[in-house]
Sequence to fold (167 residues):
Amino acid sequence: MADAVLGAVLGEAFSQLFETVKDVVNKARMFEPILTRLQSTLASLVPLVEQIGRLNIEVGHPEEEINSLIEQMKKGTKLVSKCSKISWWNYCMKSQYAGKLCELDEDIGRFFQVDLQAWNARNVLETLVEVKAIIEDDAAEGGGVGACIDCSGRMREDHIGENALSG
Fold:
């Protein structure tokens, strides 16, 4: 139950940031180039974030992985909202917030380029360990999938025929 809520929270935090950026990009013209870039970044990540939230729950990975992204999205939403309240003549605040917006865009990009790549490597290794265990279990039972796969990972044709006849 808590896992399902966590996935929903990720989707909600992401959607909230995305909608805030879309709204503010039209109101805060002085931040338009930065917000447009951030909006583009977020738009390209929508399907991926939805999958991450759902799949992370299904495979039972630690909440901390998603929590850092959720917190980043919530902070980003607050930052973008603050930008909409800065007066056009306040160049000091504009400069300060422009830097923070660029940093937010870079942090989100870094998360998906670095952290997500590490997750992918871990997921591949976990999958290999599980597949190896399945093959070893089948081989120990005297056949099964392990007996009909050659060293290259391809199905041996002699076993395909046997399995088709016995099935």
Summary: Confidence is low (pLDDT under 50) at residues 159-167. Residues 7 and 51 are 9 Å apart (CA to CA).
